[in-house]
Design goal:
The complex is a heterotrimer of chains A (340), B (351) and C (309). Chain A is an alpha/beta fold and 340 residues long. Chain A is built from eleven helices and twelve strands. Chain A has helices at 50-57, 84-90, 112-123, 128-141, 158-170, 188-205, 216-222, 240-245, 250-258, 323-330, 333-337, and strands at residues 8-19, 22-34, 39-43, 65-74, 77-78, 95-98, 176-180, 208-213, 225-230, 233-239, 307-310, 313-315. Chain B has an eight-stranded mixed β-sheet, with helices on both faces. A four-stranded antiparallel β-sheet of chain B has the order 2-1-4-5, with helices on one face. The longest helix of chain B is centred in the middle third of the chain and has 17 residues, at 202-218. Classes of the chains: A alpha/beta (340), B alpha/beta (351), C mainly alpha (309). The interface between A and B is large, with 43 and 38 residues.
Chain lengths: 340, 351, 309
């Protein structure tokens, strides 16, 4: 093929949960790509569908969830249509996951090294000697001393456990790692060390990462691309530097206002009033219309598509052409108080 | 000394903490006691600070640094092992019965987890009226008025629409506002908040912080904020104290501590905080390993095993708090204190 | 919003008592459980039937259960079931059906009163031990250990032998011993509740220990007490039956256990008089089962994860 295909190409992915009240559209038609070696930050507040997206990619949704449509091309195979057997062969070897609060996922009664070796022998088909050598290598890779392989999880600090889980995710040389809030429960110094580990992976191994987080600072420090999710939709997608320099979507403007910046303290932080819509009965038009200070009539009728606003930068807003003016207004606290 | 809500001197501290210590004994039971076994978690090891009336201080540090334990002692949820907590001229450590209850009326604490802060079987009204019932507000209309007022003050409007709601019917952000309302309903003079927004989504955090700031200013509240997040403390507090292993290693006006940190630990801590600016080049101060166990503290300066600038003396001697001028103190031998003469005693710190 | 905007006229006066009691919510969710859990519903229906039978016993039973039935001066012993005697008669010419009907009374009396005391004593002990901790906890828990060390049936028999055979002594024995399970479970629940944030918040508000115990903690353990109460109903009925069957029952009271014992000693089994021993057996089983069914429903109320999807 002449045009190189991205490693992962997600098109119009939909994920639904059946709940007592009806079908909840947790992820509602999102598209994005991840290139080889690229780090994508998937950000949004709780319930926006970012974790669901990560789990859908590995087809490990909760029992009441299912992929309701779309395609997920990974190395030109559609993950949606693969059989469960093919999926099993692919998980961990090609796509692996660092799940949420994963530092608690280590089994407390086995040595950390044994848990790592089990992955290598059972799933990777290595013999014991190979597994031993490889686990030492992996520990080194994530910045843990290899003599700690014989420790039990309780002898590790939170940050060390988190790095051990990352080592497990890397065990079989995956092409893509999905990391769900990998540093949320960690203290800043340890958080920094773990994020360094991720950056290292990119430089040394060329591994692609989807970093799922609520913290835009984490994305700013570790990712190349960002996708902002809100209520099951992607609202804005951009190279990280462009996103922080020139945000387009009002939700993104709001998030940047709400986020404190230690280096450049703000006189006042401004919050986005209200809360996300009910995804069982999502509102008509733009999902953000109930909290958006710039919503016009059209926003309540017609859903804005994700439009290319500059090369490689997309936003889903009807008023993107007026963004310069909106950016100015968004800096005023009064603007955001007018909603609600 | 009598409890009085009118102070003659506005500059006098409302709260003064002197050499506060809290050790949690590890082994309980008669045998351990007989054997004189004194193994303990040294959660707080001599913390001193003061806050003026209407002032605000932030205690920051990593988990396990003793900041929450300190807050709980200030509110008498934990009994200090030693030290004094002078609140409006009175040591509250020894208060009992009616005196303790009188203190409780004047000092409140906001907890981290709003979802856990209310009895699941009480309505919001019931939860908010409880403090008033406890403190003997006899008139029912008066109680209702004060509950309404508190909800209204924290921007839950219309207030009466929240009266009959149960906690599980509110969002996290709304609930944390109710937590604040409950703290305010007794019209306290002092409010401590332990990680007040860390459980909430970023988009609603700012609103709650703003309300807290607003209410503190309007009511001339004296506040202590506990957080691992320095940007939050930067936003809310005039004074910042950085804690490490149960001690304040550096303290001073917030802008100074954050922009020109002196203690190697503070420098490392601040340099590793992620900044939402991808363009920014950061130089981080690398520190090794994790926080040591609080059961057997390192000798001398407890930070010395991880400190890139550690000297011989750091291993042997505990650095005293040094006055750097402009209200700043630091516990580090890099800035002196090797001779007794350099030491800044409690007198100087209080002056 | 500025505080100056306050106007007390704006505030609707809401009586504090209307504050949506936890009990009301509990009752509503109980109804929900009954709607969804057929076993719990069956349990409730069984109890309703037994209660009805117990109340209406004089109306339903054709004869006095103690009366010796005669015809023309001859005792009508060991009759097979027929139109006159639905379940036949005993070897001393008493109507088995009437005995079965009257047997509902002691079963309920023992069941409910024992359950009440078991739940009450267990809850109070668990609450006090868990909340105050320290020496009080140690003493109460050692007491519980002692209660656990006493074998139940022999204890009942000895007590009844000592105080005389009466169903009230069976209740007393249960109250003295069976609170142990309830107390332990309640205590551990109180220990977790005590460290919950909302309890600490109540302390910060200045609430007294008793207020915290009864207003904040007790409502949250009440369903658990109820669960142990419902389970105790079954146990109590079973215990009374066992004690009666072993011959330590109250001879003046016709209970299902007494009927079984009566049938056993008069060799009804050998004679194949199944109509004599099977019905009381089924009644005991139903009553005990119903208790457990309701208990199971309560468990689902307490631990929603148990609910089937």
């Amino acid at each position: 093929m002449s045009v190189p295909q991205p490693l992962l190409d997600v098109r119009d992915l939909r994920v639904e949960y059946s709940t007592r009240r009806g079908t909840m559209h947790a992820v509602d038609g999102i598209s994005f790509t991840v290139e080889k070696g690229q780090h994508l930050g998937l950000i949004g507040e709780s319930g926006c569908g970012k974790t669901t997206t990560g789990r859908a990619l590995l087809r490990v949704l909760p029992r009441n969830g299912r992929v309701g449509g779309g395609q997920m091309f990974f190395k030109e195979r559609d993950l949606v249509t693969l059989s469960e057997r093919e999926m099993r062969a692919l998980r961990w070897r090609e796509i692996s996951m660092v799940p949420q609060s994963s530092m608690d996922t280590l089994d407390p009664v086995y040595r950390v090294g044994d848990q790592l070796r089990e992955v290598l022998t059972l799933r990777g088909g290595m013999n014991n000697a190979e597994a031993r050598a490889r686990s030492a290598e992996l520990f080194d890779l994530v910045g843990l001393a290899s003599d700690r392989l014989d420790n039990y999880p309780h002898e590790f600090s939170g940050g060390m456990r988190q790095r051990a889980v990352i080592a497990m995710a890397l065990a079989l040389n995956p092409d893509l790692v999905i990391a769900d809030e990998p540093v949320t429960a960690l203290d800043v110094i340890v958080q920094h060390q773990v994020l360094e580990t991720f950056r290292d992976l990119q430089e040394r191994l060329g591994i692609s990462v989807i970093m799922i987080t609520h913290d835009i600072s984490v994305v700013a420090e570790t990712c190349d691309e960002i996708a902002v999710m809100y209520a099951g939709k992607i609202m804005e997608r951009a190279p990280v530097r462009r996103f922080f320099a020139m945000p387009f979507h009002p939700y993104a403007l709001g998030l940047q206002n709400a986020f404190p910046n230690l280096a450049r303290p703000k006189e006042t932080l401004i919050s986005i009033e209200g809360y996300p819509p009910d995804l069982v009965e999502p509102p008509k038009g733009c999902r953000f219309n109930t909290r958006c200070p710039f919503a016009i009539e059209r926003c309540f009728v017609e859903e804005p598509p994700l439009i290319e606003v500059e090369p490689g930068h997309q936003a889903a807003c009807h008023r993107w052409r007026e963004v310069e003016q909106l950016r100015e207004q968004a800096k005023e606290a009064e603007t955001w108080q007018s909603v609600a | 000394m009598a409890v009085s809500s009118v102070t003659t001197n506005e500059r006098a501290p409302l709260l003064e903490v002197r050499d506060l210590v809290k050790h949690f004994p590890l082994r309980r039971g008669m045998l351990a006691n007989l054997a004189g076994d004194s193994e303990a978690v040294h959660a707080v090891n001599g913390v001193s600070f003061s806050v003026r009336r209407g002032g605000s201080i932030g205690l920051a540090g990593e988990s396990g640094c003793g900041k929450s334990t300190t807050a709980k002692m200030l509110l008498r949820l934990f009994e200090p092992t030693s030290g004094q907590i002078i609140f409006d001229g009175q040591d509250i450590v020894t208060l009992k019965g009616a005196d303790l209850k009188a203190f409780r009326r004047r000092a409140q604490l906001m907890f981290q987890n709003p979802y856990e802060s209310f009895s699941p079987r009480f309505t919001i009204f019931r939860s908010l009226v409880e403090p008033l019932l406890i403190h003997g507000v006899k008139d029912a209309d008066e109680r209702t008025r004060r509950v309404w007022q508190a909800l209204n003050d924290v921007n839950l409007q219309p207030a009466e629409s929240f009266f009959q709601k149960f906690p599980h019917q509110l969002s996290g952000g709304q609930l944390q506002r109710v937590v604040l309302a409950r703290s305010l309903v007794l019209e306290p003079e002092f409010l401590a908040a332990d990680e007040p927004v860390s459980m909430l989504d970023v988009s609603v955090r700012a609103g709650i912080l703003n309300t807290m700031k607003e209410q503190a200013a309007q009511r001339n509240l004296t506040t202590v904020y506990i957080s691992h997040d320095l940007s939050l403390i930067q936003y809310l507090c005039e004074t910042t104290a950085i804690m490490y292993l149960g001690q304040i290693v550096e303290m001073g006006p917030t802008a100074g501590v954050i922009n020109e940190p002196q203690h190697p630990y503070t420098k490392a801590l601040i340099s590793t905080i992620p900044i939402p600016e991808p363009e920014r080049k950061k130089t981080t101060i690398p520190i090794e390993g994790g926080v040591p166990s609080a059961i057997s503290l390192p000798s001398g300066c407890t930070f010395h095993p991880r400190c890139p600038f550690a000297m011989d003396i750091c291993e042997r001697k505990v650095p005293p708090p040094l006055d750097l001028g402009q209200g700043r103190t630091v516990r580090c031998f890099l800035y002196g204190g090797k001779n007794e003469a350099d030491e800044v005693g409690k007198n100087a710190a209080a002056a | 919003m500025a505080r100056a905007t306050t106007s007390s006229e704006l505030i609707p006066v809401i009586p504090e008592t209307q504050g949506g009691s936890g009990l009301g919510r509990l009752a509503r969710s109980s109804v929900d459980i009954l709607k969804r859990d057929r076993f719990a519903l069956a349990g409730v229906i069984i109890y309703l039937v037994i209660i009805l039978v117990a109340i209406l016993a004089p109306v339903i039973a054709p004869y006095d259960p103690h009366a010796v039935l005669t015809r023309n001066g001859a005792w009508l012993t060991n009759q097979n079931p027929n139109g006159t005697f639905l379940l036949g008669t005993t070897n001393v010419a008493r109507d088995i059906f009437s005995q079965l009907v009257y047997g509902a009374r002691p079963a309920l009396l023992v069941g409910f009163s024992a359950a009440f005391f078991v739940a009450l004593i267990g809850t109070v002990i668990g609450l006090i031990a868990g909340y105050f901790g320290g020496i009080i906890d140690t003493l109460l828990m050692r007491l519980t250990d002692i209660a656990f060390g006493i074998p139940f049936i022999p204890f009942v028999i000895v007590l009844v032998a000592f105080l005389g055979p009466s169903i009230w002594n069976v209740v007393l024995a249960m109250a003295l011993l069976l609170w142990r399970d309830t107390a332990r479970v309640i205590r551990s629940q109180v220990l977790t509740l005590r460290s919950r944030t909302f309890v600490q918040a109540a302390r910060i508000s200045g609430a007294s220990s008793w207020r915290i115990m009864f207003l904040y903690i007790a409502p949250n353990i009440l369903p658990l007490s109820m669960l142990y109460g419902t389970l105790a109903i079954g146990w109590a009925i079973l215990t009374e039956a066992s004690v009666s069957f072993l011959g330590f029952g109250d001879p003046k009271v016709v209970s299902w256990g007494f009927m079984l014992q009566d049938a056993y000693v008069s060799q009804a089994l050998a004679r194949g008089a199944y109509f004599w021993f099977i019905p009381p057996g089924i009644c005991i089983m139903l009553a005990v089962m119903a208790g457990f069914f309701i208990g199971r429903g309560y468990e689902e109320l307490l631990f929603p994860r148990l609910r089937g999807r």
